[in-house]
Amino acid sequence: MVVDHFGSIIMDGVLSPYVVNGSIYFTADMPYFIFHAFTIKNICGIFGDVAFPLFFFLVAEGFLKTRNRLKYGIRVGIFALISEIPYNLAHYQTIFEPKLQNVLVTLSIAIFTLILISKIEGKYQDHKTVRWVYVILSTITGMGVAFLLRGEYVFLGVLAIVLFYLLRRNEYLRLCGLCPFLIVSPWVLLSLIPISMYSGQRGKGSKYFFYIFYPAHLLLFTLIAQILSNRTI
To answer: How far is 51 from 202, CA to CA, in rounded Å?
Structure first.
C-alpha cells in the first residue's frame, strides 16, 4: 500500500508539471530523473496490485477472529470518514471529490455485509436453499452499496471479502477470493504466495496502528508531492 501510494501520490506530484491533457509532455530541458519517474510510478502500481488483495483477505480473517463484529465494522467506518479528506487531498488536491473514496469505505461496507451474512447463516443453518438465497441477495446488496459510494475497488472488493469468508473452511478454495481482482490486474496472482503462507495466527502490534497510519501517510505523501512538484517546475 505504501509503495503504491508512493507512486500514485509522490510520483504524480513529480510528474504533474509535465502532464498536459492526461499525457506526459517531455522537454529537452526537464530534469533527468523525470524520465524515470513514470517507470517508477508503474512499478509502484504493480506492488499495489499485489498488496491490496492482502488487506481484503485480512479483513475477512479479522472478521472471523474479532470478539465484537459490530464494533469492528463501526471502527473501520469511523476511520473511513477520518481518512476521506486526506485521501481526496492526496489524489485530487481537494477536500471533496465524489469520483472515488478511500479503501476503508469499501472495507467497512464489506464488514457489514459479512455481519448480515453471518446472521443469515445462524438463522437458516437448517435451510440450505433459503440460506444461500439470502446470502446471495445480501452480497448483491453490499456490492450495490459499494458501487454507489465508490470506495476503492468498489463492488469487487466486497465480493472478494465475501468469497474469502464463505470459502473459509477450504484453504485452497478460498483463494478464489482473488478472482474478482483479476479484472483489475493479473499481478494480483502474486498475492497467492503470501496468502498461502498465512499461518492463521494474529500478528503482534496495536490494532489501531493501520487505521492511524493510513490517513497519516496520505497527508505526509501529499506534503512531499507538493514540495517536489514546486521544485521540478
So the answer is: 18
The structural domain count of the chain equals 1
> Which residues, listed in sequence order, are joined to residue 20 by a DSSP beta bridge?
23
Q: How far is CA 113 from CA 75, 157, 175, 180, 183, in A?
A: 15, 12, 19, 17, 22
C-alpha cell at 24: 506526459
In this prediction, residue 39 carries a pLDDT of: 78
E strands, the chain, in order: 19-20, 23-24
Q: Which of 76, 60, 75 is nearest to 118 (CA)?
A: 60
CA angle 191/184/162 to nearest 5° reads 65
Residue 118 CA to its chain's centroid (Å):
23
Between 32 and 46, where is the model more confident?
A: 46
Domain span including residue 189: 2-232
Looking at residue 21, what is its pLDDT?
57
Q: Which amino acid is at 183?
A: I
